[in-house]
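In this supplementary section we document a worked example of the pipeline. Step one takes a protein sequence of length 228 as its only input; no multiple sequence alignment statistics are reported here. Step two produces a three-dimensional model, which step three serialises into structure tokens for compact storage. The input and output of this example are shown verbatim.
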Amino acid sequence: MKRVAILQSNYIPWKGYFEMINMVDEFIFHDDLQYTKNDWRNRNLIKTSNGAKWLTIPCGTNEKRLICEVELNDKSWQRKHWNQIVNNYRKAKYFKDYYKIFEEIYLNKSWDNLSELNQYLIKFISREILNIKTKFLDSRDYNLKFKKSERVLEILLKVNANVYLSGYSAKNYLKLQDFIDNEIHIEWMDYTGYLEYNQLFPPFEHAVSILDLIFNEGENAKKYLKSF
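The serialised model returned by step three reads:
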């Protein structure tokens, strides 16, 4: 039985994104799709003394490109984001344990492509911090011909998936009978029921980057993901 998830890469995603990765055998980045501005692709939230604040990577306003085609020409965001992370998390209990590795990513590497950056961060956090064993794949490797529901099914058939773990919003466009006809069972991701942890700057907010959980709980972070 092979369980698979397919999702666009996001910038330092929230804990639910990593929950989905941990719940499947193979996680497929789906970045050869239309880029949408003001979305999770190039921004996410961190907790500050003034509430949740956006960290946004400047990508321009052109929407006539795929996510994997988004170039990062303005390099100034890297130091700005790192400074904001340091300023808001330096007092977090475990920040010192991860300071150097994230400083290296933000200040000593140059990122030219949004998809490349997002996938690197997601894989690094999954493998090196959360110890997730899921295999990562990329939809660009499968010479896809279809769109929307048919495209998802096309990917699943190419990787011989038996179970597709999907976000609930996909019910709006997936043609469920096609999956039944191809003997692929769909499971719907449940993002409810997460426990609160020792977060700075109350009141508690679930919908922030995974960095918040890592800096506040360190090696205990996995205890606040339901699938571990």
